[in-house]
Amino acid sequence: MRAPEFFRGMRQVAVQELLVNLKSLRLIIMALVSALVIVGGAYGFSGLGSGGGFPGGLPPVVVWPHAAYNATGSHVAVVWVSDPFGGPQAGRTVDLEALGPNGTVPLAKIATDGNGFVRHDVGGTDVIAATVTVGSFQTGTTISFPPQPQNFTYDIIQGDLDRDGSDDEMAIHVVNVSGDVVPAQIAVNGTSVGSTDAHGYLQFDLPRGDSIVNVTVAGETQTFPATVRGGSGGPTFASGPDTVLIIIAALSGFIVSLFGVVLSFDAVSKERVQGTMDLLLSRPASRSGILLGKFLGAFAAVALPVTLVNLAGIGVIAAVSGKSPTGSFAAAFLGLSLLLIATYVLLQLSLSTIAKTSGTAILFGVLAWLLFNLLYPIITFVIGAALFANDPAGYFHFSLVSGLGSPTQVYFLLIGLAAPQSLAGSGGTAVDPILPEAAAVAWIVLLLLLALWTFHKRGPE
How many CA atoms lie within 13 A of 314 on its CB side? Predict the structure, then answer.
């Protein structure tokens, strides 16, 4: 068959199938279910991180106090206000009070400048309280002026700043004795981790165990210890945005595959039941063009809402956790979701062609979905446990390779390969990446050929 003949009528059928599906109640229901699971899951899991150095989660602002001195030796209270990731907060009101044996004495209420700073001469006051209020959130700190001022001062926060479940991040803010920002070089255990930015801020990772942190300004170095003992105590699976996206991708794998089945189960069988198959075949369209058109129409109808929901889920992860997932991983998640949609739509088209009624078609589709998403993983688990009871490495490799026999498991393997290496664990090296990639292509090609063959074989009835 010539190429034009092979595709004849494909575009017209695809547009018609897309429009019909976009108006269907099934699509609306499945889109709402997908949004509830994906967007709701993204919000819930992103909010489970413990926040490390920030009890109860990340605060809207962080207050960095410094004791500075002017040219006459008078005390200057310096406060820098930032977001949890070092972004300066302009226009935040800082309430300054003097602390003494007789209680507190209000000094001033000053808004931070465009760089997030407040600098206020407090005379000879030795201890100052600084408070910032944002809505119902209030945070404060104290500033103590030592008898012997140093050439520069720093303030630090250690905690789960990137919300990956471990208190192994530290942020530092450095100013000189006058309260001005100066470049500072930071080293951990003798290895440089970077320099402070134009606002005096730097965030960096700490290794597990005990460390020594050096802060160097204009050749002068101050040193302090830091320790990372373990996790922050929160549910580590729900901390980092990439980790949350892995969970969302797993949920999406089940929902997306079911979406493909529900929307396309009667793509062919309804034409036969309604007696419109002969009319469809009488048009200037080839059998292959009709089948490909139905595939493209159903695929587009599922892909559109799924992509929008997945993008919304990624946006919610970024908004709630305060940090976006890795761009390449997010793009892979979107692309692999489309691949999974195509696989299950092709599978259901084959089943819809074989089925004589729409009821039989949906039954076939649900059984196929249960097989690949529930029964197959259970069967391979039982077989693997029996064959590799005393060989964990062998069982792990068997589970990965056997997963190639299910399109959903192939999707999960590809998600694991696309995840950042810090999250992928040993899965990235236990199986050659070419295997799941080749399996994904094989599933698409084989199911497409099966759909074309069954459609040509069955024909109208």
Answer: 18
